[in-house]
Amino acid sequence: MALMILYNHICYLMKRLDKSLILLLMVALAVTFVSCSSRDKRIRKNITSILTPISSGNPYEIMVVAEDSIYDGYPGKSLLDVLKTPMKGLPRDEAYFKVSHVTPEHYDRITNLFRNIIRIVVDPNEYTMAKFRLERDVFSSPQAILTIQGPDVVSVSTYITEHTQFLLNFFTDEEINREATYLQDEHNVKFAQAVKEMFGCEFFIPIELNKMKKGDHFIWASNDAVSGLQNIVIYSYPYVSKDVFNRGVYLALRDSFMRENIPGEKPNMYMSTYRPSVMLKDINVRGHYAQEARGLWEMKNDMMGGPFVAHSIVDTIRGMIVVAEGFVYAPEKNKRGMIRKLEASLYTLNPLPEEESEDKK
Hints:
Elements: H1 2-16, H2 19-39, H3 47-51, E1 61-65, H4 68-71, H5 74-83, E2 98-102, E3 116-122, E4 131-136, E5 144-150, H6 153-162, H7 164-185, H8 189-199, E6 201-202, E7 211-215, E8 218-222, E9 229-238, H9 247-261, E10 270-285, E11 288-300, E12 305-315, E13 320-329, H10 336-346, E14 350-351, H11 354-359
Parallel strand pairs: 1-2, 1-3, 3-5
Antiparallel strand pairs: 4-5, 6-14, 7-8, 8-9, 9-13, 10-11, 11-12, 12-13
Helix pairs in contact: 5-6, 7-10
């Protein structure tokens, strides 16, 4: 329907424009559709996103739009303190976000295409209190523009500090949801089929994780890269009581599965958990209770190690705990982006009803 509306508009314009303008219009439309296809494989869901340029910038990058005096003053310093908070669960400090800055006069048709934008606006004549204002896909897609507005620098900087966790969670969730949505359409089909057959679950991982190994209630996928090794595993065990979510029980089960299925180069080498690093918290994933674990892994009797993140989900249909985990080995690289990309995959894990899992085998 939306494409038909676009077609009718073009036909109307063709009746009113001369031939040279018609040719120019058709060429521009062709370039737009081709460039969208080649630059970004994400399937556009509606006519608005088709006609909106693809956003610029990389995941977990934020552009701050503010006057120099605001950016260099209390509001800007408060915001940078938040955005450059070290991300938890990494072997060395890496900020949650990479930050750039432009002034309002340079916020134009190029810079306003950025995927994540925070605007700081201070105006005593316009505002009586500090607050947030959110807009999505205004100039490009996907895009989130968060305006922090207030009557003075003190109220704005205080408001930013008071909402530290919201700011971190909001832009992190935006990026994770974008990647998880993308994985619905572009994922390792062979791995997804194997997960349905073994666990009765829907689970999507990046295409580049194309090396797969199966074990007993265990599947391991990897990009098998020389540099920047990324891995995802999924395994399951019976849900006997809520005690399986106790820290000690979880760590013992993780070590058992990893030792059995991810050996090192020599017999006395195996993966284990660096226990002091592990942080656990309760989350909700697609309507299912889950426990998130985040921390560091190490290869016993070897020098390998790195970060991991895992979701343990209760499959009430089959009476099982299903654990999906992403882990990275990249001693020569920053790891935030890699582990976040794997983390997005974990949010696609979804136990299917018996009949649906059978139909999809």
